[in-house]
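Input sequence (458 aa), recorded before submission:
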Amino acid sequence: MPPDLLNLPSYRVLGVDENEHDYRISAESLDPPKECPHCHSVHLVRFGRRDQMVRDLPMHGKRVGLYIDTRRYRCQACAKTFYEALPDIDDKRLMTIRLTAWMGKQAIKRTFSSIADEVGCTEFTSRAVFSDYVNELERTTRFETPTWMGIDEIHLIKPRGVITNIQNNTIVELLKNRNKDTLINYLSNLGNKENIQYVAMDMWAPYRDACLTVLPQARIVIDKFHVVKMANEAMEKVRKGLRDRLTLKEKRGLMHDRCVLLKREHDLTDGDSLLLSGWLKNYEELGLAYRLKEDFFKIYDCVSPDEAQGSYLMWKQRVTPAIAEAFHDLICAWDNWTPWVLEYFNHPVTSAYTESLNNLIRVMNRLGRGYSFEALRAKILFAEGARKRLNTKPIRKNREMNGSPELGFALFCAPDAGTKARKPRPTKLEKSIQMENLELNCGSDISTLVDLIKNGLL
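Predicted structure, C-alpha cell format:
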C-alpha cells in the first residue's frame, strides 16, 4: 500500500476500498499518546480500540472517508480511560483540517449544497464550516480605513449599507442595514478614523447624522450621481404623465424612445436628434422637462459653490407650474441638502462606480438562489484574488478629465514635480498590523469583483 496516498505524514494507510462514489481508506495514527491527558502520568496500557470515520478531501471526483483505527488507553495512575488524539483533524467536527480549509475557500464561489454533495456531508455542515472560515478571515484580516469613504446601499430583501474606499476603488464592508445606530457602531470601531477626509453619500439623513457624530473632521459630499439621477427621474414623470393623452401607437413609440430622452444632448446621434425633435415640438411640457434636465446637468460644470448655487437658483425659476410636481423631489433635495451638495464643487469626490457592483451583486444573489446576508457579505469581502493590497506609492493625477478633474477612483495627489519620491515610513497602524501578524489591505477591488461575477467565478 503506498504510504503517501493520503499525504498525511501522521498516518499509515492500511487498506483502500473503492466503489462508484466513494473511497474508503483505512488508516492508523503514527503518534501514540505519551502521557495521560488527565494526570500526565506516563504509565498507560491499551484498553480497546474503535474505527473513527473522518471525511477528507475528495479524490478523483469521489468522496473520501478515512476510517482511522483509534486506540483506547487506560491510565494506571488515575484509572481514567481516553482515546488517542488524532492529529490533523478538526476539533469541532469529524473532518481533516485541510478539508475544512478547502470547503471554506470553495464556499466563496460555490453554493453550500454543491460542496456538501461533493464532500458527503450535510448542507448545514457546509454552512457551519464556511462560518468558521469567515470568522477566521475576519480575525486575521484588517482593511485599511479609507481616506475618501463612500457610503451607499444595496437592496437585498431590505436595504444594506455598503462602505467603499473611493481612492482605491474597493469595497470594505457590507452592513446588515443602513440605520444610524449600525453606521455609528461601525464608524466608531474603525481604526484611524480621524484620517477620513471626505465621505461621499446619497441624501439619506442617517448617513449624514452618523458621520457628523463620529467623523466631525470629515467633509460630507453628496454624490453627484444621486443628484443628477433625480433630474432624469423628474423628466420620466413628465413623460409618463403624457400617456393619457396619447394613442396606443404613440404610447408605444414614446416608451421605446425613452432611452433617447434620457441621453445627454451631446451624446445624441443624428437619428436620435430627429426622434427627439419630434417629441419635444409636439409636446411642450416634455420639451421643457428635457431642457430643464439638460440644464441641471450643466450646473455640475460650474467651478465653485457660489457659481453652482447661482446657476441652480436661475434654473429653479424656470420650472413652470405645469411640471413643478415632477421636479418637486429634486428641488426639495437640493434645498434641504444645499451645504453638502455644494461641497462637491470644492471636493469633487464621487462613488458612483459602485452602482455597477450593486447591480452585479443582485445578479449573483439571484444565481445563488438567495444567499444569506452573511454568506453574500463574505463572498464579496473575501473573494480570493479580489483583495487589493495597500499601495503606498503615489499615483500620478489624471489630467485628461475634460478640464474638470474629479477626485474619482485611484486619483491620488502626486508629489511636486521634480521631487524625489521617498519610501514612506510605516504608520502606527501598519506597525501594529506587522506585530499582530495581521493582513492589511484596501478591500475587494470592484473591477475584479465585476470580472469574477461576469465569468461565473463568484
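Checked by second reader. The chain has three domains: 1-89, 148-222+351-421+441-454, 224-337.
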